[in-house]
Write a structure and sequence with these properties.
The structure is a single chain. This protein is mainly alpha-helical and 388 residues long. It has 18 helices and no strands. The longest helix is centred in the N-terminal third of the chain and has 33 residues. Helix 6 runs antiparallel to helix 15 and helix 13 packs antiparallel against helix 14. It folds into two domains: 196 residues, Up-down Bundle (Growth Hormone, Chain: A); 179 residues, Growth Hormone, Chain: A (Up-down Bundle), CATH 1.20.1250.20.
Length: 388
């Protein structure tokens, strides 16, 4: 009976954090789709827009390394996570008050900073609950709710803008999901003040640093990330070659987010049953995304985008879920910060290289993407030999 009650509390914790992530993604993903043209209206040029958004993404991943270390050293998981969420949720509606592109740029970077601050401690708390219900399933449920927010947020933002044609009003309306998210955060904080009590894993006091298998896994993950093209870049290609119409590009993204959420649930279950081995066929499938989206017509591109959405869900749920199994409980925040930070930085660097290769040849983009993705396979197989 006690075990069942503990499992129920763990599930409820994952669900409330997942619903929080739904409204958080609803807020900032709703805004991200329109920040480019908004900066342009405020007077920013193409290079400035690219720099601001690119630098924001860099901060959004690199700062996680510091946030993770700070969480481990202080043990203040809730305060650090709350601070990150407040900064992030405040930054989006405040864009409505930006009088120039410089102010808007600061808010855009602050939003990414807030996200980077709250992610490592949040993932650690999720991992405590995951001990009771399965790491793949817990992270999969959370990621599904997260991605459904990423699906509905941009659609609602697009609807508000179509209704009034006002970017400032659209940003201002994002205060509704932002406040909802912060209210849920307060409920979660007072309902689960000590989520670590859901996990009876004893700390390994003899462990210094992170184990070798973690570094092998991290190397494989950053290779998989480096070959994984960003959707905005793929959308740029669709417009250049007219393989997908401008009207269908956001629809394809919505389809990808839906597939991502559903895939997180399915493969989360499979991960708990079969372990890291399921990354092998998924990585092989990911290697075929580039030829499908860069060479195909409408329907072939759609297949590629479905695979891209599936890969996104796996990258955001199963890959980090496995980290909790590899590292001592007292080093999880540092491990998550380092892992997701390095992952995002290499995704960013890989995207830059893909963009440079695109100007040379589409075939070069495809070859690079496939080789880098497939090079992760032997590393994942090596991790499997460590019984993961």
């Amino acid at each position: 009976m006690k075990s069942r009650s503990k499992r129920s509390r763990a599930l409820n914790f994952v669900l409330i954090i997942g619903v929080m992530s739904f409204f958080a993604d609803f807020t900032y993903e709703g805004a991200r789709g329109i920040v480019g043209p908004y900066l342009a209206i405020l007077g920013a040029g193409a290079f400035t827009i690219a720099f601001v958004t690119g630098f924001g993404e860099f901060v959004g991943y690199a700062w996680r390394i510091i946030s993770g270390n700070l969480s481990d050293k202080t043990g203040k998981f809730w305060p650090i996570m709350i601070f990150g969420y407040v900064v992030q949720m405040a930054s989006v509606p405040l864009l409505a008050l930006a009088g120039n592109w410089q102010t808007a740029a600061i808010l855009i970077v602050l939003e990414r900073f807030g996200r980077a601050t709250r992610n490592p401690p949040r993932d650690v708390m999720l991992s405590h609950a995951a001990k009771e219900m399965g790491y793949g399933w817990a992270f999969g449920v959370h990621e599904a709710l997260d991605q459904f927010g990423a699906l509905f947020g941009p659609l609602v933002a697009a609807g508000i803008y179509a209704w009034r044609g006002d970017y400032k009003l659209t940003f201002a309306m994002m205060i509704i999901p932002a406040l909802t998210m912060l209210l849920l955060l307060a409920v979660a904080r007072f309902t689960y003040p000590h989520p670590e009590e859901l996990d009876d894993t004893p700390p390994n006091v003899n462990t210094r640093g992170l184990p070798r298998v973690f570094w092998i896994y991290l190397t494989g993950a950053v290779l998989a990330a480096a070959g994984f093209a960003d959707y905005p870049f793929m959308a740029y290609h669709f417009q250049m070659v007219h393989s997908v119409s401008s009207a269908d590009i956001p629809i394809f993204y919505a389809i990808a987010m839906g597939v991502s959420g559903a895939g997180s649930l399915l493969f989360g279950r499979l991960f708990d049953r079969y372990g890291i081995i399921i990354l092998i066929p998924l990585t092989i499938l990911s290697a075929f995304i580039a030829p499908l989206v860069f060479l195909g017509g409408f329907w072939v591109v759609l297949i590629g985008i479905i695979l891209w959405g599936l890969g996104t869900g796996v990258h955001e749920s199963i890959i980090p879920a496995a980290v909790a199994l590899m590292v001592p409980v007292q080093r999880r925040a540092s491990a998550y910060g380092l892992f997701t930070g390095a992952y995002g930085i290499f995704w960013f660097l890989g995207s830059l290289l893909i963009g440079a290769l695109y100007g040379f040849s589409i075939q070069a983009v495809i070859v690079f993407s496939m080789i880098v993705e497939l090079s992760a396979l032997p590393l994942f197989l090596l991790v499997k030999k460590h019984n993961f």
